[in-house]
Specification:
There is one protein chain. The protein is mostly beta strands. Helix content is 2%, strand content 50%. The protein contains one helix and 19 strands. The chain has a four-stranded antiparallel beta sheet with strand order 4-5-6-7, with no helix packed on it. The chain has a four-stranded antiparallel beta sheet with strand order 8-9-10-11, with no helix packed on it. The chain has a four-stranded antiparallel beta sheet with strand order 14-15-16-17, with no helix packed on it. A hairpin with a 5-residue loop joins strand 1 and strand 2. The chain starts with a strand and ends with a strand.
Length: 192
């Protein structure tokens, strides 16, 4: 969208290859798109997040803080999480059967019907004059070290042994929008 395309080819597996004049090459494995938005539960909600669950796709609504668990194009379960802030990020921890969600002010876990917030919505940061600082969660990832890693506007946070920590970097505070772990267990950060 918004890219100046120069050519399209279809490979023998049915994948689409798009070349652009300014942004390299894009690949789309299939042009088939299925929509489950005709379901009345989705029509009333603005879906802003999706995550892979155990055997489901988990969709989060930013209009009424509902989580939808979808399997075979049907809503299997709808979960309403009592929370006055919209979801900005979600992550499903399969081994622990725990759903993690973040907002403008905190990150929480949801397991067996119980939500647990971390550090009363604040984290102490050595980079912010020793004051507690609210944080917006942009992305949540379960690391190979079994810790939860959180990209925020005050830097990188981690949840280890049920405690929230500001990851100590050797540089000043910076906003992290996304993070991914590679096969060598190293994190790649997208920040400003």
């Amino acid at each position: 969208s918004g890219k100046a395309g120069s050519n399209v080819i279809i490979d023998k597996e049915g994948g689409y290859w798009f070349s652009t004049l300014t942004n390299g090459v894009y690949y789309l494995p299939s042009i088939k798109i299925r929509s489950i938005s005709s379901n009345e539960n989705f029509n009333k909600n603005s879906i802003n997040m999706v995550a892979l669950g155990d055997n489901d796709i988990i969709c989060a609504s930013n209009t009424n803080n509902s989580m939808f668990f979808v399997k075979n194009d049907k809503i299997r379960k709808q979960l309403f999480i009592q929370n006055k802030f919209p979801f900005l990020s979600i992550c499903y921890d399969k081994p622990e059967n725990t759903l993690w969600y973040g907002t403008n002010f905190f990150v929480s876990s949801y397991k067996n019907g119980i939500s647990k917030g971390f550090d009363s919505c604040y984290v102490k940061s050595e980079f912010v004059n020793q004051n507690k600082q609210a944080y917006t969660t942009y992305e949540i990832v379960k690391g190979s070290d079994k810790n939860i890693w959180i990209a925020t506007q005050i830097g990188l946070l981690t949840i280890k042994n049920d405690s929230l920590f500001h990851y100590k970097a050797k540089s000043e505070i910076f906003r992290i929008f996304t993070l991914q772990e590679d096969k060598n267990s190293e994190f790649w950060l997208g920040c400003n």
